[in-house]
Amino acid sequence: MSIQQRILNFALFGRGKWGNNYYQLLRALDGVSLRDVVTKDSGNLREVLRDPSIHCVVIATPPKTHFRFARAALKAGKHVLVEKPMVLRVRDAKVLAALVKKSGRTFMVGHQYLYNEDVRRIKKRIDSGEMGAIRYMLADHFSSGVRTDVDVLWDAAPHALSMFQYFFNPTKIVSACVEKSSDKGFVSVHLRFDRGPLFCMRAVWRAPEKIRKITIVGKKRSAVLDETLKNRKLKFFNPVSTPLSRTHTPLQNEMEHFIACVRSGKKPLTGVEHGFRIIKFLDKISKYGIH
């Protein structure tokens, strides 16, 4: 039976907060089977990697482990979906890119916003010219929690940078102004790329309220995507249009895209090349800054 017809067997690495979302989704989707779960205490990593019946691995572990697990899975012949950030070092991203090319396996980064139906609606209107020349994109990412495995830049910026990459396809940062707090819980980023408008992002930990907002201002129309709203999260202005509802969650769209790529052999929207570029952007931004 060809891979287009068979049930795809998955292993999930990680059962934390985000790993549990994948766990629930993989148990609910048709055409896939969640065969095993690897955690820091399970002791079954080698067994899972050596199991030829497991076709795909989802990596939802702390970022510092992404490279090690992704490399091992690719070498074991598995298709890989890894959460953001793909890795924490440019040299590790380069190694993975070479491994993906050599393996011929599907490799995808979980830049979930690119599988968000509202983000795709924004992309369509930018490309059609309906919004006019885009003047700037502003991303606000505020949360009450704190992470210990990465700083706030590496936690929040992959979301905004992946969207900017999707909208405007830049290849390099031309100039940057970055301000960071000494406790690594605040960052303000202003970037100019070789393509696209001004990019601005503010990310905060220990914030009094949760904010997940993307604002894109064009000469003709503007868009605001507010992920904290329960319904009708996207609005267009000048003139104001009726907000549209979503049919699927971004995570479900992401997983279905990964499965379709595994079956067809097509390159994912957020494949290793996309992930590599985001890591290079993050690495360069990390080297700027006033503390």
Structural description of this entry:
With 291 residues, the chain is of the alpha/beta class. It has 2 domains: 8-111 and 252-271, 3-Layer(aba) Sandwich (Rossmann fold); 113-247, Dihydrodipicolinate Reductase, domain 2 (2-Layer Sandwich), CATH 3.30.360.10. It is built from 8 helices and 12 strands. Helix 3 packs parallel to helix 4 (90-103), helix 4 packs antiparallel against helix 8 and helix 6 packs across helix 8 (272-286). The model has no long low-confidence stretch (mean pLDDT 94). InterPro entries: Gfo/Idh/MocA-like_OxRdtase_N (IPR000683), Gfo/Idh/MocA_Oxidoreductases (IPR051450), GFO_IDH_MocA-like_dom (IPR055170), NAD(P)-bd_dom_sf (IPR036291).
Mean pLDDT: 94
Oligomer: single chain
- Walk across the major sheet and give the strand order: 7-8-9-6-10-11-12
Low-confidence stretches: none
The major beta sheet can be summarized as: 7 strands, mixed
InterPro entries: Gfo/Idh/MocA-like_OxRdtase_N, Gfo/Idh/MocA_Oxidoreductases, GFO_IDH_MocA-like_dom, NAD(P)-bd_dom_sf
Pfam families: GFO_IDH_MocA (PF01408), GFO_IDH_MocA_C3 (PF22725)
Domain GFO/IDH/MocA-like oxidoreductase: 119-223
Domain Gfo/Idh/MocA-like oxidoreductase N-terminal: 43-111
Outline the secondary-structure elements:
Blueprint: E1 8-13, H1 17-28, E2 32-38, H2 45-50, E3 56-59, H3 66-75, E4 79-83, H4 90-103, E5 107-110, H5 117-128, E6 134-142, H6 152-168, E7 173-180, E8 186-193, E9 198-204, E10 211-218, E11 222-226, E12 234-237, H7 250-264, H8 272-286
Parallel strand pairs: 1-2, 1-3, 3-4, 4-5, 6-9
Antiparallel strand pairs: 6-10, 7-8, 8-9, 10-11, 11-12
Helix pairs in contact: 3-4, 4-8, 6-8
